[in-house]
Structures are given as structure tokens and as C-alpha cells.
Design brief:
Elements (H helix, E strand, L loop, with lengths): L4 H14 L13 E6 L14 H16 L3 E3 L9 H10 L3 H19 L14 H15 L1 E4 L4 E4 L1 H10 L16 H6 L2 H9 L4 E11 L4 E3 L4 E2 L2 E2 L7 E10 L5 H7 L7 H11 L1 E11 L5 E6 L10 E4 L5 H5 L5 H11 L4 H6 L6 E8 L6 E6 L11 E4 L5 H10 L45 H14 L3 E7 L4 E2 L12 E4 L2 E4 L32 E3 L4 E3 L9 E3 L14 H6 L10 H7 L2 E6 L7 H14 L9 E6 L3 E11 L4 E3 L9 E6 L4 E2 L2 E2 L1 H7 L7 E3 L8 E5 L11 H8 L1 H10 L7 E2 L5 H13 L18 H19 L3 H17 L5 H11 L4 H10 L23 E8 L2 E9 L4 H10 L1 H7 L4 E7 L3 E6 L1
Parallel strand pairs: 1-2, 1-23, 12-14, 23-24, 25-32, 26-30, 33-36
Antiparallel strand pairs: 3-4, 5-6, 5-9, 7-8, 9-17, 10-11, 10-13, 10-16, 12-15, 13-14, 18-19, 20-21, 20-22, 25-26, 25-27, 25-31, 28-29, 33-34, 35-36
Helix pairs in contact: 1-26, 3-4, 20-21, 21-22, 22-24, 23-24, 23-25, 25-26
């Protein structure tokens, strides 16, 4: 029987559905294992061969754990809200829901063909009201919570509304937007609106004035990762910095817990380091600086207050409110011009691009230790969100301050003995302090750091600042609060209405608040978000329902929020919903949450290190505080799959003609390389007729061939439609089968590394599966050759060696070396003419995670009961791996001439004697004198003669 992969794969994919093979339920008698992929956004282009890489890797592990007896949860769904569907709606008028649904159907067809073990009964879509009900509820819970720094957790906002009328905010230690001080009498004297404004200062979900990346053409705020080189990633439209009132999540309150949690999870050190840097913890001092000839003062944050004597200028973030206050009339025009420039730069650009720019404000600050006047500058390298948005610059000991000082010719004062700052700043982490104060100068109260070590100077300065009420010691974090508003249509609606400009939540029992229909998907003519086009988007507080806008009276009926939630809203707790997707009463029930707990293996790309993986960890910690999640960290182990790059092909057109010359002849002509669709190229040989039909301008193309073929050039590039190097997995499955695709994607290299796709190499994996099939069936017949003959020691050794290797490799995600081991074992068993049923069925179980269709077919053919998925993973026996003999190469003067077999425990004398009497040695020894014999254990015997 031939290996008919098409029929086999259709048969088993159909049977898996009919028999609910991958449907999973909680089973307290089994250990659980939760495998999860970062779910995809369903784009119109469908999957290319790079997309399934992570899915295949996780599917292998999921199947492996099931074979080990675990109850495995392996769900899949869709991150269905996204800007591409909305942009398509704007261009065509087609509702994003229609586009998204069609795209999901396409994705599902492609995923099913590859043979994943997903439990599709648990599918979720973030655009489904049944799902975003729980996203809206989580937002409401955040709105109705504050973060208590004493208990280090979220607490109900009602605690504050109960305490403020009695005590004001005296003794309150809570995360907040700004430090407030008020008494109980003041609170009681305020009206409802003022009280709501004060509570907003503490809420975890709050409205705040923030700088955002605003794209006028798209009419929306963009996240940093949606902006590239000052333009939108989608469409390439200009992006400017703009201050807007936005919904925010107080992620910064969880900064220390996010940092501490990294020590409890199994992630790569590089990814942990990325998150640590993003969170950016630093201990330092807040100090107060007065502005010369003014009543204005401002606070700066510094990690090195001891370097105060080296401050030669101050720098404000361009967004700082101090900019307007400190800019003098003479400098106003220059400052305004500079601010306009900075508005076109994203925060990410400013962090990564170290260009030196700035402008003098015209004002001076006063050094609180020396009384010296210090010029106040404005520069984009200072960010408003870090510290206070103002810094004291110490150019001798900070590289960015140094570059700024050199560029604008500002003084540089070294503070460490022996520091050479003639070419670059000097690292001041250790050494002996000088110039603190400089010779001939004095500081307040005779304060001096000269002669102290850096460590001593830091401690002394902190104590002095506290004792003289000049500031306070503080821990600071770079991590910002997350902007949670988007001016888009296609996103989760906020369950919020407005009374006197202040937000109120619709009742919890009225969720979900569903996205309304609109006539247009663009912003309104007055600049409101697309929901401003909705005619039925008001909340009736008496009847608790959505009503027509015409009924708004701001007494009973109020306007609803026009912004929608960002893309990360729906992906921040989806792993919990998979545990209990049909629960209409809760995001996840206590029983399901208590059983599945958290994700044991999470697979996805490194591009989510500072976005999704920060936000989802924050979201889960909040839900943990509220008792909705039983585990504080959502993802135990994380594996980042690499990228499959495209292997592009090129044709070479002779300039000013429609003639194309083959690769080996192109140097004889003046040619232009042109990308060609890789799907009409095989083995770098172009299908000439398919090329002519590919595009109208090539209908009459002529060719200069090599040996009757047109050979294309090639290069490794990013897989993209514009380079015509996108390989559709459907084509590979149709030509070679899903099992071949699965094997080949893993065989390309380590899961976590990027590697180029090369269709030319896929034949090897397909031939391997044919050879594997050949172990079971007599070639060209339907005769099954498997029987109950006794296995030989060599056969047992080969299979048990494979069991050990594959088990270790799967645990380490070294799938490429597993497949190599399979190939070696199949070759050995073929040569050994193995027909032993037990050994061959062991081989079937071993390959089942990698190539499930062929495994199911052969499992059934050899008498296996049920699905191979429910077989038992084999365990190797070391007794079969003991080496009883060893092969040694026999060399004369270093050149190997033949091999000999010896007992594994043979000593050197026995080995040497056997070599000397072997008749093959005689012709190399005849007439020669033996100088010495060198025996390398288990490798070779080298006889030196002359």
C-alpha cells in the first residue's frame, strides 16, 4: 500500500471531529497541563507557512503531555478586534464584523488542514459580546478599585468613600496621579463632581490628561509599537504628540510586583531582562530647585543626589507644564519651534534615537547646595513620564548629559579624582569624590563630600537632604500607566456614561454593552470618534438601557462613552476564559480556575515582550487581588518561537526589453532583478508558462535559458506579499501532506531561532515519511509486514536510543534533532528488517506528536485500540543501551584503513594483539618497523611505522 497522505489526513481529521478526540473536561483524577498559543489576529491574507511554526511546536508538546497521561487543555481563538478590519471598512463600507468573520473562517480551514489538537469547543473571539462582557466587567472593577501601597493589592474604592468623610486622606498610602492633602471637612464641603474628581486620582482605571501618539488621518491614538519612524505602521500617516483626556490603567502601581513576579516564572533570561528594563526600577532622591528671580520651584528625581556639585544645567521634558512658565519672552519663538518639532516624535523614537537637540528656556534654577545659578534647557531626551519630567544634568558622569553639554558648549565638572572627561563621560560608580564643593566654594552648613568614597557620599547626601527638608528618598519606576482609549469603531465599547463631564459605570447586570451600528466608520466632522455617528448611544438610568441620542436630557438620560478599548484589552485575560468559556455567570468559575490554575506552557513571539506580556501580567494580578484568578502569574513557562523568513526568488530582465535571462547567464547582460512569485518556482527553476500567465505584462515575455531551463536567483528576506515570497501552507499540504509540513517546519532549526523557508528541502521530510510507512507495508502491496517475531538486540537498542533522545528533545524543544534521530532510527530498522509489532508500534507513538495523521493510520493498522493520542508514552530501558561491542578505526601513520569490532571491555593489549594478527594489517606492516601503537579508547588504533 502506498502512502496516500491525502486520504489518510482527510480520514483522521474527519474522525477527530466525529469522535471529539480533542474535547477536554476537568478531571480530578488526572494531572492537568495547560498549553496556550498567543492567539492570532485573523487578517485577510490568511496564514502563510511562518504562522504555524509556534502552533506546531506547542501542539507537539500538548500531544506529548497527553501521551504521558496528563489532561491537556490546548485551546485556540481569535484576537478579532484590529485596525486592518476597520481600515477595510472605511475603504469599502463593509462592516468589520463581516470581514472578520470571513477571515476567521479562512483561518479555521487552514488550521484544520494542519491537524492541530485544539479543543474548538472552547473557541473565543474577542469581538463576541459574550466574551467582551468580561473585559468590560474587569474594567468596571478597576474603576471601582484603588491600589493600597500598605497591603500591596487592589482594594474597593468604597473604602475611600467611607474614610474620606471621617478622616480626609490623612494616613492614606495609595497609588495616585498626584499627591493630594485634604481634610474630612473639605471632603464634606465638596459637591458630587469635585468628589468624583478626587476619587479619579486614586482609581486603577481612571481618566487622565496624557501625551499620546495622535494620528490625524486615522483619527485615533496609536500605541508606541504601532508607530515607526514618526508615521503609523498602518498606512504610513504622520503621527504627532498630543495631550488628550484618555482612559488609563494604573499599571505603574503594580511595578514592584511585576518585577518580583519575574523571579517565580520559567522565562528566558533575555526576556526577563527586557521586562526588567521596561519596568525600570531605580532608587533615588526627589529634590526641590527654586527658579532664580521667581516664586516658582520644581522637583527633580535623581538616583545620584551626591553629584549635585557637578550640575551645570537643568533639562525639562518638552511636555512639562514648566516649559510655558519658564520660557522668557526672548526665547518664546525658539521654544515654540522646538516644541512643534518634538510633537512629531514618538516616545520610542526619542528613547532609541540619541540625536542631540534642545533649546534654552531663558530661565535659571538655583542649586540648593551652592546657590549657583544653573541654566534651564528643554530637550527631547527627557521624558515627561519618568520621574518628574525634569532633571539635573551632570555631564561629567552621564553620557547623554555629556553629549548635550558638548553640543551646546556647557561646562563639564568632574567629581571623581582621576576622572578623564576630555572625550567622554566617566562612570562615577566608585572612586574618591572631589569638587564637592569645588576649591574656593562653600555649600550650605559647610556640607562637603570631598575625600569620601562614592558609596559614603551617596549615603551622606541622602541623610542631608532628608534632615534639611530639601526632598525625600524615593523608589521610581520607568513603567508608565497604560493608555486605554482608542478613537476607533472596531473595539470593545466602554460601559460608561457621562454626567456633568464625569464618568459613571452602567450597572453590572446590564453588561455586555454592545457595540452600536454606525453610518460611517470615520471620525465625525467635529472630530469625535466613530461612535459619534451612532444615533442610538445614550444611557437611560431609569430603565437601564441604551436609547436614542435625542432623549439625552442629562437628568435621566446621559451620553455614552465614544472611545473604544485598545487591542490589548481582549488579550489580557483570554487564557482565563478558555478555562470556562461557556460560563454565563463569571469570567471563569472557581472550580475550573482551581483545576487549570494557570498556563503551564505559553508560546508566542518576542515582539510581545513589553506590550501584551506586561499588560496581561498586570491584568491577572488585579484579578488575583479581586479573587477571580487563583494564581498571581498567568504564564508559568514561556517559549518564544523564531520567525520563518522568506526565501525570495528573482528573474532578471534585460533592460528596455521584455526578455528574461537565466541566473548563470545574467552577467552577460545589463539586467534588472525582479521578485517573482515563489509558488511558480520549484527548485529555483521557473515555470515559464505560469510566469507568462502570472501578470499581463509578461504574456509575451521571452527567455534566455540554461540547458533548457530558466534558473532563478534567490535571497533570504522577510516573508511578505510585496516580495512575492509568501508560501501558503495549503499548497504544501496539498502537495506533500500536513505531516510533512509539520515535520519540515520543526526540522528547519531550533524553535526559538529565526530561519529561512526553503521549499527545496521539504522533499527530504516527505521521503522520510514514505520510508517510515515502508517499515509497515510491503512495497507496492497492501500487505502489512508487522508481526510478533522476536526483536533483536540491535533493534531494541535502536528504538530505545530513540525513545531516550526524543523524550529529552521534546522537553527541551529541540524538535529538529528529534527528527534527525527518527531518520537515523528508521534507516537502522530498515537495514535490520525489523517487523516486530511492539517495537514498530512504539515508533508510531513516538512520532504521533510530530506527524499525527500517519501515526493514527498505522496505530489502527497494527491493532491499536482507540486513538493513538491515548496510548502511553514509552520509557527507555538503559539495559538495551549498554554497549557490548565497539567499532574502532585502524590507522597507519594517521590514515584510517579499515574498521574492526571489539568487545566493549577489551583492554589495550587485547586490542593491539588483534590488530597485529588481522590479515588486513599485514600489507601496511610488511617491511616496516613499528615505532609505537596509539589507542584512543572507543575511537581508533593508530600504528606509527617507518
Amino acid at each position: 500500500m502506498e502512502y496516500n497522505f491525502t486520504d489518510i489526513e482527510r480520514k483522521w481529521q474527519r474522525r477527530w471531529v466525529e469522535q471529539h478526540t480533542y474535547k477536554v473536561k476537568e478531571d480530578k483524577d488526572k494531572k492537568k497541563f495547560y498549553v496556550l498559543n498567543m492567539f492570532p489576529y485573523p487578517s485577510g491574507a490568511g496564514l502563510h507557512v511562518g504562522h504555524p511554526l509556534g502552533y506546531i511546536a506547542s501542539d507537539i508538546y500538548a500531544r506529548y503531555k497527553r501521551l504521558q497521561g496528563f489532561n491537556v487543555l490546548n485551546p485556540m481563538g481569535y484576537d478579532a478586534y484590529g485596525l486592518p478590519a476597520e481600515q477595510y471598512a472605511i475603504q469599502t463600507g463593509q462592516h468589520p464584523a463581516i470581514t472578520t468573520d470571513a477571515n476567521i473562517k479562512r483561518y479555521r480551514e487552514q488550521l484544520d488542514k494542519i491537524g492541530f489538537s485544539f479543543d474548538w469547543d472552547r473557541e473565543i473571539r474577542t469581538c463576541d459580546p459574550e466574551y467582551y462582557h468580561w473585559t468590560q466587567l474587569a474594567f468596571q472593577k478597576m474603576f471601582n478599585s484603588y491600589y493600597c501601597n500598605d497591603s500591596k493589592k487592589a482594594r474597593p474604592i468604597d473604602e475611600l468613600t467611607d474614610a474620606f468623610p471621617k478622616y480626609g486622606n490623612e494616613g492614606l498610602n495609595a497609588a495616585c496621579s498626584e499627591e493630594l492633602h485634604f481634610t474630612a471637612d473639605e471632603w464634606n464641603s465638596w459637591d458630587e463632581k469635585r468628589r468624583q474628581e478626587v476619587l479619579m486620582n486614586y482609581r486603577i482605571a481612571y481618566l487622565g490628561e496624557t501625551m499620546v501618539n495622535w494620528c490625524p488621518q486615522l483619527g485615533t491614538v496609536l500605541a508606541n509599537d504601532e508607530v515607526v519612524d514618526g508615521v503609523s505602521e498602518r498606512g504610513g500617516y504622520p503621527v504627532v504628540q498630543k495631550k488628550m483626556r484618555q482612559w488609563c490603567l494604573r499599571v505603574s502601581a503594580y511595578a514592584q510586583r511585576l518585577l518580583d513576579g519575574l523571579e517565580t516564572i520559567d522565562w528566558t533570561e533575555s526576556l526577563k531582562e527586557t521586562q526588567k528594563n521596561w519596568i525600570g526600577r531605580s532608587e533615588g532622591t526627589e529634590m526641590l530647585f527654586k527658579v532664580a528671580d521667581s516664586d516658582i520651584d520644581f522637583t527633580i528625581f535623581t538616583t545620584r543626589a551626591d553629584t549635585i556639585f557637578g550640575v551645570t544645567f537643568m533639562v525639562l521634558a518638552p511636555e512639562s507644564e514648566l516649559v510655558d512658565q519658564l520660557t522668557t519672552g526672548e526665547q518664546r519663538a525658539a521654544v515654540d519651534e522646538y516644541i512643534a518639532y518634538v510633537k512629531k516624535r514618538t516616545e520610542r523614537d526619542r528613547i532609541s534615537d540619541h540625536r542631540v537637540t534642545g533649546v534654552f528656556s531663558g530661565s535659571y534654577a538655583v542649586n540648593p547646595f551652592t546657590g549657583d545659578k544653573i541654566p534651564v534647557w528643554i530637550s527631547e531626551y527627557v521624558l515627561a513620564g519618568y520621574g518628574t519630567g525634569a532633571i539635573m544634568a551632570v555631564p561629567a558622569h552621564d553620557s547623554r548629559d555629556y553629549a548635550f553639554a558638548r553640543h551646546f558648549n556647557l561646562p563639564i565638572v568632574p567629581l571623581i579624582e582621576g576622572a578623564d572627561v576630555s572625550e567622554q563621560s566617566f562612570d562615577a560608580k566608585e572612586g574618591v569624590v572631589m569638587n564637592s564643593p569645588a576649591e574656593g566654594k562653600t555649600a550650605i552648613d559647610g556640607f562637603s563630600l570631598n575625600g569620601l568614597t562614592v558609596k559614603e557620599a551617596i549615603a551622606k547626601t541622602k541623610e542631608f537632604v532628608k534632615a534639611h527638608d530639601m526632598g525625600r528618598v524615593k523608589v521610581n519606576f520607568r513603567l508608565r500607566d497604560a493608555i486605554f482609549s482608542r478613537q476607533r469603531y472596531w473595539g470593545e465599547p466602554f460601559p460608561v456614561y457621562y454626567k456633568e463631564g464625569m464618568p459613571y459605570m452602567i450597572p453590572e447586570e446590564c453588561l455586555p454593552l454592545e457595540l452600536p451600528e454606525v453610518a460611517k466608520f470615520l471620525p465625525t466632522e467635529t472630530g469625535e470618534p466613530p461612535l459619534g455617528h451612532a444615533t442610538r448611544w445614550a444611557w437611560d438610568t431609569k430603565n437601564n438601557k441604551v436609547v436614542d441620542n435625542a432623549l439625552i436630557d442629562n437628568v435621566i438620560v446621559f451620553p455614552l462613552e465614544l472611545n473604544t478599548m485598545p487591542g490589548f484589552a481582549g488579550s489580557s485575560a483570554y487564557y482565563l476564559r478558555y478555562m470556562d468559556p461557556h460560563n454565563h455567570e463569571a469570567l471563569v468559575g472557581k472550580e475550573a480556575d482551581g483545576y487549570w490554575k494557570s498556563v503551564d506552557l505559553y508560546v508566542g513571539g518576542t515582539e510581545h515582550a513589553t506590550g501584551h506580556l506586561i499588560y496581561s501580567r498586570f491584568w491577572n494580578k488585579f484579578l488575583f487581588d479581586c479573587g477571580y484568578s487563583c494564581k498571581e502569574e498567568p504564564f508559568g513557562k514561556l517559549v518564544n518561537q523564531g520567525m520563518i523568513q522568506g526565501r525570495s526568488n528573482f528573474v532578471y530582465r534585460i533592460k528596455d526589453t521584455n526578455t528574461f535571462v537565466s541566473l548563470g547567464l545574467k552577467d552577460n547582460y545589463d539586467t534588472t532583478p525582479i521578485h517573482v512569485d515563489v509558488n511558480i518556482v520549484s527548485g529555483d527553476v521557473l515555470d515559464v508558462e505560469a510566469f507568462k500567465a502570472w501578470r499581463p505584462e509578461y504574456n509575451d515575455a521571452e527567455f534566455v535559458l540554461e540547458d533548457g531551463k530558466y534558473v532563478c536567483g534567490w535571497a533570504v528576506e522577510k516573508m511578505s506579499k510585496s516580495m512575492y515570497n509568501v508560501v501558503n501552507p495549503d499548497m504544501i499540504v496539498g502537495k506533500y501532506g500536513a505531516d510533512t509540513l509539520r515535520l519540515y517546519e520543526m526540522f528547519l532549526g531550533p524553535v526559538e531561532q529565526s530561519k529561512p523557508w526553503d521549499t527545496n528541502g521539504i522533499d527530504g521530510c516527505h521521503r522520510f515519511l514514505k520510508k517510515f510507512w515502508g517499515l509497515f507495508y510491503k512495497r507496492g502491496t497492501d500487505e502489512l509486514t508487522v508481526n510478533d517475531s522476536e526483536a533483536t538486540p540491535e533493534q531494541l537498542k535502536s528504538v530505545h536510543k530513540l525513545i531516550k533522545k526524543v523524550t529529552q528533545d521534546i522537553e527541551n524543544f529541540s524538535y529538529n534533532t528529534s527528527i534527525s534521530a527518527f531518520m537515523i532510527c528508521v534507516n537502522e530498522l530498515t537495514q535490520l528488517k525489523c517487523t516486530n509489532r511492539e517495537l514498530l508500534r512504539t515508533l508510531v507513538v513516538l512520532i504521533a506528536p510530530f506527524a499525527p495523521h500517519i501515526a493514527e493510520e498505522l496505530w489502527e493498522a497494527t491493532g491499536g485500540e482507540g486513538s493513538v493520542c491515548d496510548a502511553q508514552w514509552p520509557v527507555h530501558d538503559e539495559k538495551y543501551l549498554v554497549e557490548t561491542s565497539v567499532k574502532l578505526g585502524v590507522a597507519f601513520n594517521g590514515k584510517c584503513r579499515f574498521d574492526m569490532m571489539f568487545a566493549a571491555d577489551a583492554d589495550n593489549k587485547t586490542v593491539e594483539a588483534a590488530v597485529m594478527v588481522d590479515e588486513r594489517s599485514q600489507k601496511y606492516l610488511e617491511g616496516k618497523q613499528i615505532v609505537k601503537v596509539i589507542i584512543v579508547p572507543k575511537r581508533m588504533v593508530n600504528i606509527v611505522v617507518k
